[in-house]
C-alpha cells in the first residue's frame, strides 16, 4: 500500500513537471495566437489585455485575401514540394552510389560535398547568382530549384549514406539471384528499408526550402513569383510593425510544416526495417 | 513492398507533374507583369523600395503615374521589398553581377558601404546636380557624401524628437520643456521620472551619449581611440549608467520597454521617436496621442540634437538607363512628388515644401525644427560592424559585467581595427 502511494506521488511530481514544461513551451505560441486577435498591435500587448481579447479571424482573413497570401502559399508549395522530392530522390541515389560503388576519388568527393555545406550562404550567393544568371534562370523557379535541389542533394547524401551503410549487404544477394541489378536493389531494398530516414529527411528538406528567404529574395524579382517568407517579411515595417498581422501571417506560414511533421512524425523515431532480416 | 513501390511511384509522379506544370510557369507569372509590356519604345527603369504599405499606395498609384505623364517615354517599375540585412546582401549580389535594379531607395546608413564597393553612380557627376542641391535640407544631403562625391539624393528624411507625457508635465508643474540635455536630466532626477528607450543600439542611445558629452570618433571618422575612450566619453556613459541604476532610464531595458504605450500610460515621462510614432496610426489614434503627449525637439547639446535617419535615392553603377534614372531621381525631389509623399507622414527632404496645410499631422513642425541640428552617424562603410561593437560593449556596461573604462577602451580598439582593416 505504501509502495502504491509513493508511486502515485512520484507520478504526480513527474506529471506536474511535464505539465509545467508544456506550459512554458506553449506559452509564447498561445501569446502569439492571442495577439492575432487584436486589430492593431504596434507594440506587443500586455498579458492582461491578451487574456481579455475577443477571438476573431479578421487578421487571418486580411492576410489571406487582402494581402493575397493564397498566391504566395501556392508558390511556396510548388517551390518547396519540387525541391523536397527532387533533392530527396537524387540524394538517395547519390548516397547509394557512395555506399555500394567503389570509384576513384570517392572519399575526396564526399568530403568536397561536406565542405560545400560549411560555406555560409552569404558568401556563396554572388557566385550562385552569377551561375543562375549565365544560365538565364534569374527570376524563374528553375533557378531556385537548381540551388535548392543542389544544396538538398548534399544534405540528403550525407544523412542517407550513414543510414544505407547499416543495411546488410547480404540482403542484396536475393535480388542478384533473381537476376536484379543495382536499380532493383536500390528500389526494392534500400528505399523501402530507409523509410524512417527518408521521412526525416523529407521534413528537414521541406522545412528548409519552405522557410528559405535569402536565395528567393535574390533570384526572384517579380512580386507574383514571390514565396511566402519574402511576403511574410513585408509585414515587418522598417520602423514599426503591426504584430497582429505579422503573427497571423506567421501562423498561416507554419501550418504546412506542422502538417508535414504530423504526417511523418511516426516514422521519425523508428529504426531501420532491416532488424532480423537475415538469419544469424 | 508493393505499398512502398506505389508510394515512391506517387512521389515521382508528383515530381513530374509539378515540374511539367511549371513548364510555362503559368502559376508564377503575374497578370501585372510589366516585363510583358510589348511597347518597345519606352525605356523601363526598375526601382526597389522599402516603402510601407500606405506609402507604397501613394508612390505606385499617384506619384509614378504623375511622372509617367510628364515623361511618357519612361516607364517606372516599382518593386517593393522588405527592409532587412538580407536585402542589402541581395542588392550587392545583383549589383556585383550587373543585374541590379536601376534605382534603389536606400537607408542613409547603407550608402557608404555601397559607395565603397563602387556599386553606385556618383550623381554629383551630373551637371545639373548643383541645381537641385539648393532645394534640399543640408544634413540629409550630406548623408550622400562619400569621399568628396555625392552618391545619391535624399528622398525623405527623419530624426527623433522628444515626446513627453502631458499629464506628468502638469503633475510636476514643469512650465518649460527642456531645451538642453542638462535641463532634461535635472528634471528627471529631481522628480524621479523615467526616460524610455527601446534598446542599446546607437539609434536609441547615441544622442544621449553625445548629449552627455561623449564622442565616438574624430571629425574625419578615422579614429575612435582617444575619443570613445576619452575621459568625457567615460563620464557620459557613467552618467547614463547611473540614470539606469537609479531607475531614471527604463528599468525594462532588457525586457520589453514598450515605449510607445509607456509614454501614453505615464510609465515614461519622455521617449524619443521618429515621425512613424504618429504616422502608422489612424487619424483617431493620432488625435488621441496628441491629447496625451506633447512633442518638442530633442534636448540640445553643443548645437546637436538627435540622430539623422531617412532614405536616399541612389542609381546603380551598372544601370543601362542612366539618363532616365537621373531624370526620375531629380523629379522625385521636386515639389509635387515630395508633397504627395508628405501625405503619408514622411518628412520631405525638399525644404521648400510648405507643410502648414497638413493639419492632420501637427507634429511635422517639431521634426522640421530639428532637422538642422541632427547628429550624423559616422558615414563609414564599416558602420554595421561598428554598430555591433558599440551595442556589445554597451550591453556589457549596462549588465555591469565590465567597467565603463575597460569597455570603452576595448570598443575603441576594436573600432579602430575595423577602420584600419578595410580602410575608408
UniProtKB/TrEMBL annotation, chain A:
Q: Does the keyword Transmembrane apply?
A: yes
Q: Which residues form the ABC transmembrane type-1 domain?
A: 73-264
Gene3D superfamilies assigned:
MetI-like
Q: Where in the cell is it found?
A: Cell membrane
| GO cellular component labels | plasma membrane
Indicate the transmembrane segments per the record: 12-34, 72-96, 108-130, 142-164, 185-206, 243-264
4Fe-4S as UniProt keyword: no
Q: How does it sit in the membrane?
A: Multi-pass membrane protein
CDD domains registered for this protein in UniProt: TM_PBP2 (cd06261)
Q: Which organism is it from?
A: Paraliobacillus quinghaiensis
Pfam families, sorted = BPD_transp_1
Q: What is this protein called?
A: Sugar ABC transporter permease
Q: Which controlled-vocabulary keywords does the entry list? A: Cell membrane, Membrane, Transmembrane, Transmembrane helix, Transport
Single biological process term from Gene Ontology: transmembrane transport
Domain of life, per lineage: Bacteria
Which InterPro entries does the entry link to?
A: MetI-like, MetI-like_sf
Family, according to the entry, reads as follows: Belongs to the binding-protein-dependent transport system permease family.
Amino acid at each position: 500500500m505504501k509502495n502504491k502511494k509513493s508511486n502515485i506521488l512520484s507520478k504526480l511530481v513527474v506529471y506536474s513537471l511535464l505539465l509545467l514544461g508544456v506550459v512554458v513551451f506553449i506559452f509564447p505560441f498561445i501569446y502569439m495566437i492571442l495577439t492575432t486577435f487584436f486589430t492593431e498591435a504596434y507594440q506587443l500587448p500586455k498579458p492582461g489585455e491578451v487574456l481579455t481579447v475577443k477571438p476573431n479571424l479578421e487578421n487571418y482573413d486580411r492576410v489571406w485575401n487582402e494581402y493575397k497570401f493564397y498566391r504566395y502559399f501556392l508558390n511556396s508549395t510548388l517551390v518547396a514540394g519540387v525541391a523536397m522530392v527532387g533533392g530527396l530522390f537524387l540524394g538517395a541515389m547519390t548516397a547509394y552510389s557512395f555506399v555500394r560503388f567503389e570509384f576513384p576519388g570517392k572519399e575526396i568527393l564526399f568530403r568536397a560535398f561536406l565542405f560545400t555545406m560549411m560555406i555560409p550562404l552569404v558568401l556563396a550567393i554572388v557566385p550562385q547568382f552569377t551561375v543562375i544568371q549565365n544560365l538565364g534562370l534569374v527570376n524563374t523557379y528553375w533557378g531556385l530549384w537548381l540551388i535548392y535541389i543542389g544544396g538538398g542533394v548534399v544534405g540528403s547524401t550525407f544523412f542517407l549514406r550513414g543510414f544505407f551503410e547499416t543495411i546488410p549487404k547480404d540482403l542484396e544477394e536475393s535480388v542478384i539471384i533473381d537476376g536484379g541489378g543495382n536499380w532493383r536493389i536500390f528500389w526494392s531494398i534500400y528505399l523501402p528499408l530507409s523509410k524512417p530516414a527518408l521521412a526525416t529527411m523529407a521534413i528537414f528538406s521541406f522545412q528548409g526550402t519552405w522557410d528559405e528567404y535569402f536565395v528567393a529574395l535574390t533570384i526572384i524579382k517579380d512580386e507574383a513569383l514571390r514565396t511566402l517568407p519574402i511576403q511574410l517579411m513585408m509585414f515587418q515595417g522598417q520602423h514599426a510593425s503591426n504584430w497582429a498581422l505579422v503573427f497571423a501571417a506567421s501562423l498561416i506560414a507554419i501550418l504546412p510544416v506542422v502538417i508535414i511533421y504530423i504526417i511523418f512524425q511516426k516514422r521519425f523515431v523508428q529504426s531501420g526495417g532491416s532488424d532480423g532480416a537475415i538469419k544469424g | 513492398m508493393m505499398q512502398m513501390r506505389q508510394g515512391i511511384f506517387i512521389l515521382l509522379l508528383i515530381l513530374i507533374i509539378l515540374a511539367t506544370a511549371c513548364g510555362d510557369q503559368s502559376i508564377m507569372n503575374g497578370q501585372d507583369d510589366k516585363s510583358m509590356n510589348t511597347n518597345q519604345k519606352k525605356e523601363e527603369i526598375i526601382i526597389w523600395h522599402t516603402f510601407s504599405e500606405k506609402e507604397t499606395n501613394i508612390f505606385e498609384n499617384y506619384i509614378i503615374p504623375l511622372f509617367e505623364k510628364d515623361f511618357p517615354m519612361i516607364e517606372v517599375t516599382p518593386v517593393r521589398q522588405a527592409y532587412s540585412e538580407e536585402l542589402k546582401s541581395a542588392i550587392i549580389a545583383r549589383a556585383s553581377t550587373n543585374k541590379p535594379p536601376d534605382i534603389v531607395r536606400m537607408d542613409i546608413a547603407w550608402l557608404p558601404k555601397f559607395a565603397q564597393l563602387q556599386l553606385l553612380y556618383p550623381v554629383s557627376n551630373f551637371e545639373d546636380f548643383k541645381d537641385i542641391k539648393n532645394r534640399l535640407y543640408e544634413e540629409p544631403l550630406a548623408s550622400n557624401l562619400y569621399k568628396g562625391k555625392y552618391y545619391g539624393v535624399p528622398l525623405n528624411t527623419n530624426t527623433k524628437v522628444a515626446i513627453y507625457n502631458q499629464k506628468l508635465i502638469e503633475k510636476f508643474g514643469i512650465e518649460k520643456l527642456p531645451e538642453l540635455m542638462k535641463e532634461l536630466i535635472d528634471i528627471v532626477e529631481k522628480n524621479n521620472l523615467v526616460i524610455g528607450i527601446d534598446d542599446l543600439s546607437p539609434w536609441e542611445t547615441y544622442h544621449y551619449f553625445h548629449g552627455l558629452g561623449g564622442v565616438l570618433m574624430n571629425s574625419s571618422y578615422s579614429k575612435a581611440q582617444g575619443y570613445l575612450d576619452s575621459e568625457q566619453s567615460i563620464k557620459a556613459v557613467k552618467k547614463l549608467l547611473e540614470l539606469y541604476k537609479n531607475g531614471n532610464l527604463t528599468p525594462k531595458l532588457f525586457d520589453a520597454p514598450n515605449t510607445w504605450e509607456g509614454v501614453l500610460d505615464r510609465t515614461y515621462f519622455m521617449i524619443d521617436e521618429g515621425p512613424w510614432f504618429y504616422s502608422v496610426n489612424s487619424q483617431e489614434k493620432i488625435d488621441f496621442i496628441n491629447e496625451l503627449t506633447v512633442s518638442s525637439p530633442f534636448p540640445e547639446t553643443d548645437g546637436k540634437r538627435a540622430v539623422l535617419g531617412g532614405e536616399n535615392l541612389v542609381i546603380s553603377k551598372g544601370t543601362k538607363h542612366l539618363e532616365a534614372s537621373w531624370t526620375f531621381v531629380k523629379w522625385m525631389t521636386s515639389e509635387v512628388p515630395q508633397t504627395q509623399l508628405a501625405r503619408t507622414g514622411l518628412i520631405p527632404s525638399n525644404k521648400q515644401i510648405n507643410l502648414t496645410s497638413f493639419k492632420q499631422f501637427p507634429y511635422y513642425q517639431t521634426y522640421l525644427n530639428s532637422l538642422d541640428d541632427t547628429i550624423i552617424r559616422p558615414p563609414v562603410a564599416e558602420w554595421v560592424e561598428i554598430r555591433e561593437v558599440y551595442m556589445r560593449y554597451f550591453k556589457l556596461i549596462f549588465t555591469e559585467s565590465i567597467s565603463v573604462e575597460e569597455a570603452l577602451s576595448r570598443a575603441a580598439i576594436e573600432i579602430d581595427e575595423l577602420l584600419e582593416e578595410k580602410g575608408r
